[in-house]
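Notebook entry, cofactor series.
This is the third protein in the set we're modelling with a bound small molecule. For this one the ligand is flavin-adenine dinucleotide. I'm keeping the input format identical across the series so the outputs can be compared line by line later. Sequence and SMILES below, as received.
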Amino acid sequence: MIDESTVLIVGAGPTGLMTALELTLNGTAATVIDGRNDRGVRSKATTIWSRQLELLDRHGLAEPVIEAGTRVDRITVSTPYRRLGTFELGELTTTRFPFGISIPQPDFEAHLRLRLRELGITVEGGLELIGLENTAGGVCVALRDVHGSTYERHAAFVVGADGPESSVRAALNIKFSQYGPDTTFAITDVAISGTIPPRDVGYYYSTHGALGLVPVGAGAFRIATGIPHGADYLGQQGFREALALRAGITADLVDLPWESHFQVKFRHADTYSMGRAALVGDAAHTMSPAGGQGMNTGLQDAANLAWRITEIVSHSAEPSTLLDEYTQERRGDVKRVMQTSRLLTRFGATSTLSNRIERELLSAAVRFTPAVRRKITHRLAQLDTRYAPSRRSFGEKSSLRPGDRLPDNLPTAPHHAHRTYRWTGSRSTPHLDASVAHTHTLNATAVPDDAAAVLGKKPAVITVRPDGHVTSYTALR
Ligand SMILES: Cc1cc2nc3c(=O)[nH]c(=O)nc-3n(C[C@H](O)[C@H](O)[C@H](O)COP(=O)(O)OP(=O)(O)OC[C@H]3O[C@@H](n4cnc5c(N)ncnc54)[C@H](O)[C@@H]3O)c2cc1C
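Returned structure with ligand:
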């Protein structure tokens, strides 16, 4: 039941469930409602990337998700005739998860729900939010149950995790601006006979259109391919032809179990919060499935928002600064992710001479410049999420800045609380001022080289927020 000290999460999709997990582990009471009683069995998202595995590990969920899913080792971009670029996830540094995991979205959600149940939280289905008003020190909401009865309740904070048609966003009158035209995709998950790399996520571009291929286990693949708006169902034959023309793959599809068409819009909320209500996931942003980033960005929203809500609700912090920063950080990051999604589409476009030239230049940069390849791979795995206020200047010595993500391959347990590290420096273990409050010592001998390079040469005290981003970095003499 909702009471005035509860955080009400509207929507039990992946971002709503993740927000509830983050809050609960921070000791903040959360209630999750959903207008529907079931979420359906069709998978939308298929892939969880490295950064999200890091976040899930804080809830003991990385291992079960990895076990239940199919490992993805690389992302490839090709035309039907040749490979344009390969992004090896194994080259990712500073993470314990240098790979992605393909898992059907309903199975992933089942893991989140199970963990929540273990923590004593169940989703109240059949309860829809129909109105919301910010009041002094809280939020008043109007709810409707499946019998049509309506209720008024008060909550300490409301999180709108209610998808692209968000009622929370509408009630707050937040604009959902659209960028670029709609595109329509046909998708299916189907067993394919033929030699298709079982651990590659492939994006293919041709003059006939784009096609994505994601392994979903047991020899089956998600096929997603662009189609004209209002097109007829492709059927088995249509998908087979799309594979041949767009990806240059001649293969037989073993029984088409289902086919679904959906329209994609790039849309972005102008702000992610107002008063004591905030948006996460598709309620705040929607994007093309190119790159498989949509759900993943929602999970990062949840981690970034939840600790702020705890500060506001449990420690009486002033909401405006914390929530303005939430919008600023997440909106900026989502914008970058959207740009990558667009770049992936542009990367393969072949229609005009300038597109072809741009593609050849990009392809050469990816093949011959490891730094460019690494940058894009980190971006696709969402490991480059960085909330630093300004860019590093050229040649600046590497050391952490506020907002940077702390390397995840440090010899410490996964955390979801504020914490302080004492870094002994890359060379020695000097004497450090005993007055420095610290909870964990990071000794160079136990820190992998790639992480040590990020931590910097000098000894330092590093404070870190619950979502794993640096709050302060103080180099010590
Ligand atoms: C075909 C397809 C393929 C995709 N592939 C990928 C991919 O490969 N990788 C990726 O990262 N992302 C992918 N996405 C995007 C991903 O599925 C979404 O980003 C993700 O589902 C968003 O989760 P969410 O929790 O924010 O919202 P949703 O999953 O939309 O959940 C919102 C919930 O809110 C409930 N709700 C709505 N209104 C109310 C209300 N007024 N009151 C109470 N409850 C309400 C709804 O019933 C629903 O259960 C894909 C999407 C589609 C459509």
